[in-house]
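Schema walkthrough. Field components (list of strings):
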Amino acid sequence: MKGLDGLFAPRGVAVIGASRNPAKLGAVMARSLSTYDAPLALVNPRDPELHGSVAEAVDSLGAPIDLAVVCVPAAAAADAVAEAAKAGASAALVCAGGFAEAGHPEFQRALLDVVDRHGIRLLGPNTSGFLVPGRGLTASFVPSVGSVPAGGVAVVAASGGVNHALSFLLAEAGYGVSLAVGLGNAADIDAADVLDHLLADPATKAVALHIESVADGSRLAGAVARLSARKPVVALVVGRNDVGAFAKSHTGALATSWRTTRGVLRQSGAVLVDDERQLVDAVGTLSMIRLAPALSPGVGVVTAQAGPGLLLLDGLRGAGIRVPVLADETQRRLGELLPPMTYQANPVDTGRPGPGFGEVVRTAGDDPEVDLVAVYALTEPDSVDLVSELSPQTASTPTVVAVGGSTADVSAVRSGLHERGYPVATSPAALTHAIRALVEDACLNNRRSVDEPIPPVAVPQGPWDEHQAKTVLDTLGVRTPSRAACNTPEEAHAALDTLGGPVALKILDATILHKTEIGGVHLGIRTHAELSEALDALGVQRVLVERMAPAGVDLIVGARRDPVFGPVVLVGLGGTTAEALADVAVRAAPLSAAEAASMTDELLGRALLDGWRGGPVLDRRDLARVVRALGQVLLDAPQVDEIEINPLRLTRDGLVALDAVITGKEQ
Amino acid sequence: MKGLDGLFAPRGVAVIGASRNPAKLGAVMARSLSTYDAPLALVNPRDPELHGSVAEAVDSLGAPIDLAVVCVPAAAAADAVAEAAKAGASAALVCAGGFAEAGHPEFQRALLDVVDRHGIRLLGPNTSGFLVPGRGLTASFVPSVGSVPAGGVAVVAASGGVNHALSFLLAEAGYGVSLAVGLGNAADIDAADVLDHLLADPATKAVALHIESVADGSRLAGAVARLSARKPVVALVVGRNDVGAFAKSHTGALATSWRTTRGVLRQSGAVLVDDERQLVDAVGTLSMIRLAPALSPGVGVVTAQAGPGLLLLDGLRGAGIRVPVLADETQRRLGELLPPMTYQANPVDTGRPGPGFGEVVRTAGDDPEVDLVAVYALTEPDSVDLVSELSPQTASTPTVVAVGGSTADVSAVRSGLHERGYPVATSPAALTHAIRALVEDACLNNRRSVDEPIPPVAVPQGPWDEHQAKTVLDTLGVRTPSRAACNTPEEAHAALDTLGGPVALKILDATILHKTEIGGVHLGIRTHAELSEALDALGVQRVLVERMAPAGVDLIVGARRDPVFGPVVLVGLGGTTAEALADVAVRAAPLSAAEAASMTDELLGRALLDGWRGGPVLDRRDLARVVRALGQVLLDAPQVDEIEINPLRLTRDGLVALDAVITGKEQ
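Field assembly_structure (string):
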């Protein structure tokens, strides 16, 4: 068997710890597995009516057992997995808890020893299992999840409970599942393994990824990048708020940094969502439609009722989605289809839906600026048959439909439209999240560019005072103010003459990271008298004299080593408010110029960078060069732990690094 | 008939413009109304088989007609309403569009003339109507909305389409409707009228309010305040983003200021939500449970699956909801009910739900810190019967349950739990929004305090320069720095001696609102030489010399006249980032001290006010005094248009107003 096929497409399955007591886990598992069309061996050495061992089952069934479903307590699990491996199984599922998450890392280590020794792959422990509805394979201790239909969405969830909850919610929303797996403690098989498995799974059209913790950041990022290049990936990351203690009790792992994980997943091409309902809206839609890569897809909105259309428009605008005014020619054609006085510029308000509704939708989709059509309509079976109106879909523009109405009406319309290839939502908010996901995916795909590699960066040994740090920036091509490092008052006075006033005077000492807080910075010095006074106040010999920079908008840009993701870069706005908001964008290094240029898009205060109150406008490419350069420092200079420019000032003349700190190993 | 009873409980109904062509509006309306148990007159003078007029119908039926449902074009609507009024009708519903929203304000004025002359009340025009399922009354041109069951939620929607969409979504979520109305152009009957009607409607337990525009802000605020004191009100306000042109085409009214409307609705006791799904989560739950007023209710979380429980906890923490560690005694009792190693501090993780699950929920609810229990469980019919576990609910602590599972399982559990008084959600996000609504409602109710009125404020005639504005602040008890208004350089130098340095020197001129931008402010002046230099640079006679304030966190506090809501007060953080985020809280004046003290809670950057990086901590009562005083200025001084303190600095010694501007009528 190749890869994870032994787990997800086994030629035979054994339940180790099977039981004839229907309340026992082993019996529940056997019941779940009974619908799978392959030999099923019930193994329990203490029950003479069941198989005594996996090996014996293989002999007596005359068929290979690829998957062992282990339903024994934690202390006995490793032996059971070993027994299965020896009998030829290539995969095991251990459902029981009682391992690392419950203070017994030794049981988990024992499992991993078996994995290492026998090469068997292990799902779990501490998970409710997985399901592959298309094969009738339900390896879960919640048998009712077998009712989830087959479909195009793969669920890769950190938690078995979330795996089931998502599968049920997808089914409720009219979507089916290709594969749904809860990773539990992920002692062996982790999200990256499953994502790589899905690359070649033809049934999987889009992937829902639920993340609680990350052990190996670059492995996960790589797997997401590989998969999202071929199939849309939508990610829900837990842990925005402090949930640490409970999270640890759950899987035995600390919650990962929410912000960094989200940043790196987005960089790897995953669409991000905020909760499981948005996840269902997004991944269900993406399992039916994927837009071509685009910088900013245009959305045409067609609504049969203005009020819900207004909710939709408000939501789309809030997500920064382009709803372009339709071309004159489109509006002319719509004018022929619609009553006068209806709004036709975009949104297109049809008034009550009637015959011709489909033609309106197609006409909006034909507009040259429209890459995607969003439709909202209440079902009114008496006045319009939405399914036949939207069938055949002669226009080729992708279209998502939201329908409101009675449960029965909505269900019928949804089935009909699904069959005709339309994703269907049931409310304006759901439609907003669906559209947002399609647009976001298209934008992320558009960003997959290959850049000129950055030449290697040479950084001298530390420690680095501000002057030395800025000299590193100079070599990186990052602009710094004219300056002079001075060892005597005389040198400082000479520097004032050379640089011209006003200047800043700063203490130069690599051991002082927060110069301002200890009074180590004097600004706006114009005269020798002022300089002398400031030098006296500092009371040290080694100082930096530096030209003052013009006013502007302050950014913070940095790079540091993340324990999970390795070198990461950060961009934020300066000032305490931005800091209090933790308004920071994070990416892993190296990163493409397009990726780096996109980072400010997610800052809450991004309006400040686009000519706020007549101020300067940020050239994103300039910022991208700085960000990539800092990332490269960490990639090329193992002695550097962190490099930060704070502030990096946006002025009318571009970006200037006003202060810089490098920390790391000192020699 | 009293109030709106003629509309919502008519003794007889006439359809004016009835038709026997089933596709016509008049026929559809008649079909909708056919289930109502009262005489229905079909009126159309051009059809001899129908009644020729409302008066004739009254005679021939021998019954009063309270409600006229007018299904004629805009140009003919006023005459039809007048005819009905003369025949004794006390209410009319005009569905047709083609009025103010479509460039025909004259037709709308004609309708209002009839309303004024005859005292008839008018719903619409330009609405799909309303429904009262408990009376079998569906006055809507979407007959399928008659399938929405009777229940405890009243829907008051700006838009007929949203009214229907919400009613359907409530039904889908297992809730019913007491009354659901779309206001359309709201030419006569507006949201305030319906809210006041609901005060005495015993079937209505909670109210969903959808707002697109507000004509009379204080009328709406008053109605929400009256109603929310008795029944929970949940509000969804449209127009966070720019949707202006489309909104105007919809109802003929401009979108109201989103931020101000939300602030005033919250102040009036309405729970705010961000989209229609949250609205359904919130109002459905509040129609079954209302918490006692409380400052910060504690939530006990019980989860049968840790993963969904983690999503829930993350959401609750993000909403600032208290999830207290359970008392030792509670944890001891839980320890007896649950397997070892499960998390029991709160959340309480039961592992798979089994018999005894209900006892765990009740035990968590008995904790002295727990005012509300949130439960998540996947339905596992084989292992636990959630309905019987949670029945009878011996504990008196309110409990909301979320269940995941197959559509059939969830539906059965939901019905059973609803019957037993539990609100039921179907996902962690839905449960989060339900809990948030209950907590928010309890907090808002807790804030309904009556304060000492503020003594009248006397403000001299303007114009007001900074010194005069600060003198007004002095009379209000708002602290300002020591200062001297000086008319000569000699006075300025004397002031420096009196005040001691460092001082700020500012131009004093009521016509200059942005002193800093024209170089009108010099800071940090310590010596007479510096003062002379600064005076020369200013080049004016009249200046303010003022003691410099210590460092701190800058706020902006102001009051202005809103065209819709009248005098409003605003609180925000200082600095361009906060400004770029529009991070401002708004309330109407007058406001209670508790209300004013709550304003900073909704600022994104609120962490800065609570000792950020060892800085000062804001006393909310101090800020409340300043905010209320500014509001009072606008209430008492008609000549003042706006008063703003920017910045109001939070220092270790409390709040100090560093700059103040008053604008208004100059004499």
